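Catalogue entry: protein
Contents: sequence, fold tokens
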Amino acid sequence: MTQVLERAAAAQQYTIRPLGAALGAEVLGLDLAQPVGDELIARMKEALNQHGVLCFRDQDLSEPQQIAFSKLWGPLEDFPEENKTVAAPTVYNVANVSAEGEHLPDTDHRVIFQKVNALWHTDSSYRYIPAYASLLYGIEVLPESAEGGRTGFSSMVAAYEALSPEMKARIEPLHMVHSYEHGRRVYGSLPPLSNFEKNAVPPVSHPLVRVHLDARGRRSLYITANAGNEISGMPLEEGQALHAQLIEHIARPEFCYFHPWKKGDLVVWDNRTTLHKAQRYDMARYRRVLRRTTVAGEGPVFGPYSQAVRAAGY
């Protein structure tokens, strides 16, 4: 979509302008620290449904202000982590800097957790009811001359539509196992899960093909690389090979947008229809501090064979 949309709501003028060919748009002219009405949130949800990713430019948000704005989108998730990069139960510091301002070495487990995010994923897929949207705010970002440090996004709608008819038929009945513990398999130096974490987020299974009842049965892939690589009901090696093939597919440039951060960016993405990943950068040289809040989902992932999908005729 190439046209520029202009709206007025809650006494604020704003413009929505596409960022990437596959997904992404920037929102200009809004001050989210000011009161925001239900009408504006409804329009932003429509824009998020269309673009998958929204970047609200030039924001100046305290932690309470970000939490307050995030709650307008829906109830917030509590993070399951204990004493890692969590500031408050609903706030996650995506950072290589401690809460006290110390630039952490890349051997610190709080930094290694950021490396897990360098794999394609969708937030909270390890929950039975995964997240709806995530809001990530740029506090300290890399200089423009630095390499890496962007956040990549991939459209699961476009990736699914580009699959061959044979692959669509193959994956239609399949599920993937999602486990919060999988990051420990990738990075063995991470501390083991606590009993609290194990009880909070046990492994779950979700359909590989997600059907969106609120979008007239639109379909998308639902897959992740940082919370597993096993396909339910398939021999381990065969399932892992299929998983690797799909992850390679979703990384194709025509499905992706990589966001170069500016200080004051508030980036919101739809976890139901997009994947994202952190782009690697020189963590020892550069400080990077982003603050994330996550809006909880409204229900489980529906696949093509779910009763709700069949009842709706999709």
Residues 236-250 form the longest helix (15 residues). The chain is about 25% helix and 25% strand. Residues 1-10 have pLDDT under 50 and may be disordered.
